[in-house]
Design brief:
The complex is a heterodimer of chains A (322) and B (246). Chain A is α/β, with parallel strands linked by helices and 322 residues long. Chain A folds into two domains: 3-171, Rossmann fold; 201-321, Rossmann fold (3-Layer(aba) Sandwich), CATH 3.40.50.1220. In chain A, 29% of the residues lie in helices and 26% in strands. In chain A, helix 5 runs parallel beside helix 8 (303-321). The longest helix of chain A has 19 residues, at 303-321. Chain A is elongated. Chain A starts with a strand and ends with a helix. Chain B is of the alpha/beta class. Chain B contains six helices and 15 strands. In chain B, the strands form three sheets. Chain B has a nine-stranded mixed beta sheet with strand order 11-10-9-12-8-1-6-7-13, with helices on both faces. In chain B, strands 2-5 form a two-stranded antiparallel ribbon. Chain B has a two-stranded antiparallel sheet with strand order 3-4. Chain B has one domain: Rossmann fold (3-Layer(aba) Sandwich), CATH 3.40.50.620. In chain B, helix 2 (69-78) crosses helix 5 and helix 3 crosses helix 4 (126-134). Classes of the chains: A alpha/beta (322), B alpha/beta (246). Chains A and B meet through helix 3, helix 4, strand 7, strand 8 and strand 9 of A and helix 3, helix 4, strand 9, strand 10 and strand 11 of B. Bound molecules: flavin-adenine dinucleotide (FAD) and adenosine monophosphate (AMP). The site of flavin-adenine dinucleotide (FAD) has 26 residues of chain A, from helix 6, helix 7, strand 16 and helix 8. The site of flavin-adenine dinucleotide has 26 residues of chain A, from helix 6, helix 7, strand 16 and helix 8.
Chain lengths: 322, 246
């Protein structure tokens, strides 16, 4: 089956999740005897396109005419590229852009869609895909019944893998029609730029930190590790941290390789958004805190003593590695 | 201003999730149901605020069986004026969106609001699908919504920041945290909700594009390995050598 992968551009660079989507698309295509094509948009520099070209894809259709996220234009672009590449399956990343475009493509093409896939599809017999449901508390195996199919892939669910060979990059400009929304401005979040949904390492803290003035050590720990920062819901509700750091059932769901939870009790709604993490470390004064039941490693202790020691230990570890 | 808010039913966030009938169905025994938080806290409340400021009407719609009615009454108690229930089991996002789109085409709305996702299926699909079927502009994950005449100003979450958009009404917008503050229904609202119209509409869509075959639960975690708080070097070593996480 031929596969089309939608690549997200992020300030002239390709988003990491798009390399995962490309890896996924290539594998499904080669397993089912087809080829994989990428549709990319926006102002992408040559280095990014070149990198994107090295994931086993046969060609990249690059449309530089559209740079803003206009849902109806990106929908038309995707549908045109799917026709051009005779794709039966379209892969998006389950990020804000994918979540906003994929359902439109699905409804326009009447292509059945599975949102939030965490694994490769089963293709022997029915085409089924494993996905996160109940905010990460469970999984569902969902069958797509239509000939044309759409999958949005959760970031960090599979690892990206380069392949031999380079795809051809083709300038692509199908008729996109008029824009349906007008983008006035983009307000960047600032910070060190590690995107929480894509981050492999995350340091997160909760109400146990007592106040926003105490986040210095959390940020320092994150910086030493090269991690993104996150927080529990009450912490963002009271304004100690920005709302985009709120993880959990009603915040964002993440699945990093390492999640370090500091001064967070581990309420069921918090766990829902983080229990897909591969390794969980919990630091809490209360040895009965429910989070320890979901943890791989635990430290029963006071964050104000443990975190500075941890920062020292990481510095020493990095010095030893160097 | 005529606003339609799409309301879905979700298990309370503290629910323990289990399955029955050979893991093919969600086990509802002992589960409390609520209005999906994004639909209630943000979409519905913002719709009510816009009505309070500009006049008009807030209608809610659900695609679901009779067991949706308690949560629909709750939405009426919070302040919606009128409710429609499309009498059909919600089994896939396309089917739900197509039902709602059919309803919209025979009634006219300036604004259609959904939640950013349901907390049980987490698809973020229905809003966009409605927009595609009725050919309306769409903005997803909106954290702020202002309306000025026939223009909507939206701030929406995007990777790495917030995008500011303008859309011409009618439009479909999915609501995320920040758009409004949760409202608790008062006694007067609860009493009034009993006599507000809740109309049952027959289903018109039979087509589904997907089908859930089986559910499963994540494997149980093994026991936590406790590390001495004085010995963070050991923790770092474990994370490097054993867990291979750093
Ligand atoms: C509908 C609904 C949806 C929700 N969605 C979410 C969600 O998406 N995400 C989310 O996070 N929450 C969510 N919640 C809230 C959730 O139920 C909890 O209230 C919340 O997660 C608790 O945050 P916390 O762990 O930071 O604070 P607390 O529960 O107050 O826990 C603080 C922890 O810090 C520990 N502590 C105190 N001092 C120290 C110290 N010096 N060093 C180390 N540890 C210390 C304490 O022992 C305690 O375990 C939701 C709730 C509802 C009702
Ligand atoms: N059965 C339903 N009836 C009415 N609205 C729904 C239904 N299911 C989903 N929605 C709306 O669509 C949004 C997104 O749902 P989902 O695509 O399932 O994540 C929800 O927040 C609701 O506003």
């Amino acid at each position: 089956m031929n596969v089309l992968v939608f690549a997200e551009s992020d300030n002239g660079k390709v988003a990491k999740a798009s390399f995962e989507a490309a890896t996924y698309g290539t594998k499904v295509a080669s397993k089912t005897g087809g080829s994989a094509t990428i549709v990319a948009y926006g102002k992408l520099d040559d280095a990014s396109l070149k990198e994107l070209a090295s994931y086993g894809i046969t060609k990249i259709l690059h449309c530089s005419a559209v740079s803003d996220l206009d849902p109806s234009q990106l929908t038309r672009l995707t549908i045109a590229a799917a026709a051009e590449s005779q794709a039966e399956l379209i892969i998006f990343s389950h990020d804000y852009t994918g979540k906003s475009i994929a359902p439109l493509v699905s409804a326009k093409m009447k292509a059945g869609m599975v949102a939030g896939a965490i694994d490769y599809p089963e293709t022997n017999g029915d085409f089924t895909v494993k996905t996160n449901v109940f905010s990460g508390k469970a999984f569902a195996q969902v069958k797509i019944k239509t000939d044309k199919k759409i999958i949005t892939l959760i970031p960090n669910a599979i690892s990206k893998e380069k392949q031999e060979g380079q795809a051809e990059v083709i300038a692509y400009s199908p008729d996109l029609g008029a824009a349906s929304v007008s983008v006035k401005e983009f307000k960047a979040e600032g910070g060190d730029g590690i995107n929480l949904t894509e981050a492999e390492l995350v340091v997160s803290a909760g109400r146990g930190l007592k106040g926003p003035e105490n986040w210095g050590m959390i940020e320092e720990l994150a910086k030493e590790l090269g991690a993104a920062t996150a927080c529990s819901r009450p912490v963002s509700d009271i304004g100690w941290r920005p709302h985009h750091e709120h993880v959990g059932q009603t915040g964002i769901a993440i699945r990093p390789n390492l999640y370090i939870a500091i001064g967070i009790s581990g309420a069921i709604q918090h766990l829902a958004g983080v229990n897909g993490s591969k390794v969980i470390v919990v630091i809490n004064t209360d040895k009965e805190a429910p989070f320890f039941k979901a943890a791989d490693y635990g430290v029963v202790g006071d964050a104000f003593e443990v975190v500075p020691k941890m920062i020292e230990a990481i510095k020493a570890f990095k010095a030893g590695q160097a | 201003m005529n606003i339609l808010v799409c309301i879905s039913k979700a298990p309370d966030t503290t629910s323990k999730i289990t399955f029955k009938d050979g893991d093919t169905k969600f086990n509802e025994d002992g589960v409390q149901f609520i209005v999906n938080p994004y639909d209630e806290w943000y979409a519905l409340v913002r719709a009510l605020e816009l009505k309070e400021a500009n006049g008009g009407k807030v209608t809610i719609i659900s695609v679901g069986t009779a067991d949706y009615e308690p949560i629909m009454r709750k939405a009426l108690a919070i302040g919606a004026d009128e409710a429609f229930r499309v009498d059909s089991e919600a089994s896939d996002a396309y089917q739900v969106a197509a039902e709602i789109a059919n309803y919209i085409s025979s009634n006219s709305f300036d604004l259609v609001l959904t939640g950013k996702e349901t907390i049980n299926y987490n698809g973020s699909q229905v809003g966009g699908m409605i927009a595609a079927i009725i050919d309306s502009p769409y903005a997803s994950h909106a954290t702020k919504l202002e309306v000025n005449g026939s223009t909507a100003m939206v701030e929406r979450d995007k990777q790495g920041g917030v995008e500011v958009l303008e859309l011409t009404l009618p439009a479909v917008i999915s609501a995320a945290k920040g758009m409004a503050e949760q409202r608790i229904p008062n006694m007067r609202g609860i009493m009034a909700a009993r006599s507000k119209p809740l109309t049952v509409v027959p289903a018109s869509v039979t087509e589904t594009l997907t089908e859930t075959i089986k559910f499963s639960l994540p494997p149980a975690k093994g026991d936590v390995k406790l590390v001495d708080p004085e010995n963070m070097t050991e923790l770092i070593n474990l994370l490097h050598n054993e867990a291979k996480a750093i």
